[in-house]
Amino acid sequence: MNFEFLQTRVALFQGLPEHRLRELAEGSRVESFAEGETIRHAGDEVHALGVVLGGEVSATVEGERGEFRKISLLSAGDTFGETALMSGKGELADLTASSDCRVMLVPLTLFRSHVMAEPKAVENLSRNIAERFHRVVADPLSVAAIARKEDSSLLLALKSERPECILVLNRGSASLKWSVFDTAGSGESTRGQIERIGIAGTRLTQRGARGEIIRELPAAGHAEAFVAMLDALTDRSSGAIAALSRISAVGHRVVHGGEKFTGAVLIDDDVLTGLDALAPLAPLHNPLNVEGVREARRIWPEVPHVAVFDTGFHASLPRHAFLYGLPYECYAEKGIRRFGFHGCSHGHALLATAQFLHRRPREMKVISCHLGNGASLCAIDHGRSVDTTMGFTPLEGLLMGTRCGDLDPGILLHLECHEGMTSGQIQNVLNHRSGLLGLSGISSDMREIEAAANSGDHRALLAFKVFCYRVRKAIGAYVAALAGIDVIAFTAGIGEGSVGVRAAALQGLECMGIYLDESANRQATGREISRISTTESPVTVLVVPTDEERMIAREVLHALSRDYLLRASEACRTQPIPIEVSAHHVHLSQEHVEALFGVGYQLSQRCLLSQPGQFACRERVSVIGPKGRIDRVRVLGPARKTTQVEVSMTEQFVLGIHPPIRESGDLEGSPGCTLEGPAGRVKLNQGVICALRHIHMTPGDALRYGVRDKSTVRVRVEGDREMLFGDVRVRVDPSFSLAMHLDTDEANAAHLSNGAVGFIEKVQ
Questions:
Q1: CB atoms < 10 A from the CB of 228, how many?
Q2: What are the residue ranges spanned by the domains of the chain?
Q3: How confident is the model at residue 8 (pLDDT cuts 50, 70, 90)?
Q4: pLDDT tens-place string over residues 454-470
Q5: What residues contact residue 337 under an 8 Å CB cut-off, 6+ apart?
Q6: Of 135-144, 366-375, 553-562, where does the model show the most confidence?
Q7: What would the mean pLDDT of 96-125 be, rounded to a whole number?
Q8: Fold of 568-578+694-763
Q9: What's the rounded Cα separation, in Å, for the pair 144 and 61?
Q10: What is the pLDDT at residue 571?
Q11: DSSP letter for each residue of 278-309
């Protein structure tokens, strides 16, 4: 590597000590690209800074008609990828070799530790990013291209800062499933399972690019099953890996994370202790999951192990959705609440749906129907789980293979008090003798139920009808809860494989804009994603093959990426973030400014706000809802494209409105209200939200704190009593100033005011 070139020709590296520059060069890789070869696509997730060593690189954007427009030409010494690295957004443009060229790719961790540590480099970065960002945003063609690419392509791709070979493990009571994903490969995976562990008929199957393995095994335990799995993985002819040392990370499915684990987490001894403590919440699942973790850590002691939780996707449930009608102390002191499960499956259904429809996950309302031996529905509002049918345990909700689903809790008291059944006997009935098996008396397998019903078996037909009715009823409830939907996604064994269940579950829902294409439904096999609604149906209905293992691998990569970032930015964890209390306010469009204050009226500035370019106006309006009104609500300026009203929880009650918790600007499907000003009234059809907790920061702040745009973090606030605020969204933009915003209800409850500070505790 020519250090003189790096020191003199690359402005970003000027001033770097030679030893740092040498380490940076040695830790980076150099790639050559032929003329016309694509280096990066717009929207790609970025894990490395690019440095042009020779030749030229074109940055282009694609128009709506497929035409390309060059926005810049990079030559030797120029860099690319800074904006994506520091904002967390995708690459802003397509990068193509204009001539044969060589590019050095600097990994994110080295970029942080060696470049961001130099004040002059940070200054150059901030200036370059601001210039590029505003140049691109000022170009309507570029903005349109980025909007088309963002969040809609390669959502399920497994990309990482460095190549990883990930083993995903899913241990059940009598089964062991595994998958291997190599991020440096073609995307093909190897998948295997051992069934009937500990009983007669134990069988191993493994399928991958190198072939298939099928073996009959003796009836032994999980330890022997692990040995059999390792043997299959390293099989000389059909194995997935040449040696066990090829595995660089292991992902573990863990059913229950409680309130402690709301996202994927790297496993250490403290985490294992926490998982052991959660065993009472999922006694049939968590102990087995944790045993599998311990065995895998023994086999791979040097690689990172990551726990991915079925409950994690539902960490965003609002309180009104997760609380039961029990004394509040049951939640506050005993932790009894709705948690929800099948999170990996519901998350996969959301991303696969968005990718298939070329839409962003955060712009859709989706009902995900995971129908298998275990079954649950999930209501997803703009990327967030807001309700789900399973609750404190996987027993609640729909009828399942052997589980009863919803029932009157008085039945349990009756069985105990009048039938003399013990808690163990009742648990056995609820978990193992109910559901499809209990009603039909035939099987817990829907395929056998349908076959028997087709032959005229009355109880099988009854079980089928009860199952489908429960699904249909839950869909209707979630259409109401979401105030309309865009997509219904059927996934898992029954959802993918049963034409009859899908048809019966959607029967009669035309009143909700759900129209099934019967021919498409019959042809859907579940082997690939397919649309089964009519072309005229306002609601799209899809069959989505589930891939929980890929989602677990994806979460493993995210956890590793967060760990790399956090380790590099550990010193910044003690840097405070100022807290600002955001009272109710209104953003008005110019059209509504004139409707409320008079033709030609312009908002007048009262005082500047902390965020550059924003100000509190002298003008105030009244907000009127179906129940009551709030007067003298401050207008914030300048005028926006769309009118938005932000209120607190208590004010929702006053108005008689129940708005969703959303990011600013995410208004689709939100309720409306009436605004009243001195010159007239405006009736809004939508636009009222309760603002999601958020932190404004610049790209430089984001890199220092080890977060990215749209990251969700937990913030610790010190004071009379230490408080933890979870589900805080990070928003990154070169024009922002560092500040965390809380609404008045949350600030009052925590005894906080302007001037308080918080500290990022962890990335969720």
A1: 20
A2: 3-149, 165-319, 358-548, 568-578+694-763, 583-689
A3: confident
A4: 999 999 999 999 999 99
A5: 259, 322, 323, 324, 331, 392
A6: 366-375
A7: 78
A8: Barwin-like endoglucanases (2.40.40)
A9: 9
A10: 47
A11: TGGGSTTTHHHHHHHHHHHHHHSTTS-EEEEE
- Phi-psi domain of 383 (left: phi exceeds 0; alpha: psi -120 through 50; beta: other): left
- Is residue 63 a contact partner of residue 107, using CB atoms and an 8 Å limit? no
Q: How far apart are CA 751 and CA 747, in angstroms?
A: 6
For the ranges 217-221, 314-318, 407-411, the lowest mean pLDDT is seen at: 217-221
- Burial state string for 648-664 with b = 16 or more CB within 10 A and e = fewer than 16: bbebbeebebebbbbbb
Q: Is the pLDDT of residue 143 over 50?
A: no
* Residue 201: strand, helix, or coil: coil
| Dist CA 657 CA 655 (whole Å) | 5
Residue 319, classified by CB atoms within 10 Å of its CB into exposed (0-12), middle (13-18) or buried (19+), is exposed
Q: Which CATH number fits domain 3-149: 1.20.1440.20, 3.60.40.10, 3.30.413.10, 2.60.120.10?
A: 2.60.120.10
Active-site residue numbers?
Answer: 310
Cβ atoms of 526 and 129 closer than 8 Å: no
**Domains 165-319 and 358-548 equal at CATH topology level:** yes
**What's the one-letter identity of residue 728?**
V
Contact 697/726 with Cβ under 8 angstroms? no
CATH topology assigned to domain 165-319 = Nucleotidyltransferase; domain 5 (3.30.420)
